[in-house]
Amino acid sequence: MSQAREFIRLNKKDAPAKIRENIHWKRSTQDKLKININGGYQCNTNQGGWGYVIRDRFGAVVQAGVGAVAHLMDTFHAEVLAYAEAIRAAQERGMSRIELETDSLLLQQALQDNSFNLLALGGVILEIKNEISMCFQSAIV
Description:
This protein is an alpha/beta fold. The protein has a single domain (26-140), classed as Nucleotidyltransferase, domain 5. 35% of the residues lie in helices and 26% in strands. It has a five-stranded mixed beta sheet. Strand 1 (33-42) and strand 2 form a beta hairpin. It is elongated, with a radius of gyration of 20 Å. Residues 36-138 form the RNase H type-1 domain. It holds the Pfam family RVT_3.
């Protein structure tokens, strides 16, 4: 064995074992319809998709939607479009009390403050905020 390989073998530190946490859907803590949102993106094709599921307080699916999108900029773009489609669907069905959930921390932050207004997607984010405030009696973001 070469000296380099021997050095690497002797000095290799084992990576700590990753703890996998099982994440399960959680019902809304209030009497609201819960909307789970997600977007996906393939950087090699700039294509992706979006999806949402709307469930009642018992976990029964009320409505779901998916779509494919070409010419995405990034994953954030897909997440924003998913959020917009979910809001539109809830509004069209006359839902007034909703709880929205996304795994995108960036999108959560964008919806809670104004720091994203100047981004390329700032207009879409502002539109989502306006629709939430005008069209829903109660909305948890």
